[in-house]
Amino acid sequence: MTYDRLVCANCAAPVSEGRCPVCRANRERLQQQGFLGGLNGLNPMALIALLVMLIAAVALLAHQTV
């Protein structure tokens, strides 16, 4: 989930539009700290691909130890 899908409780507008001071402050805070840590730039398909690669690597390591 990215911050552009969040809705402000103060003005009921998307936070990404920054219509009120609360929206603008939260948008700035989320941009500075990076929403979801370092994964904020990845789309869901990229995350799935990353997960599949991780599972394959673990399976390969488990197979080599047997």
TrEMBL record:
Keywords assigned? Membrane, Transmembrane, Transmembrane helix
Which segments cross the bilayer?
45-62
Top-rank taxon, per record = Bacteria
Name of the protein in question: DUF2116 family Zn-ribbon domain-containing protein
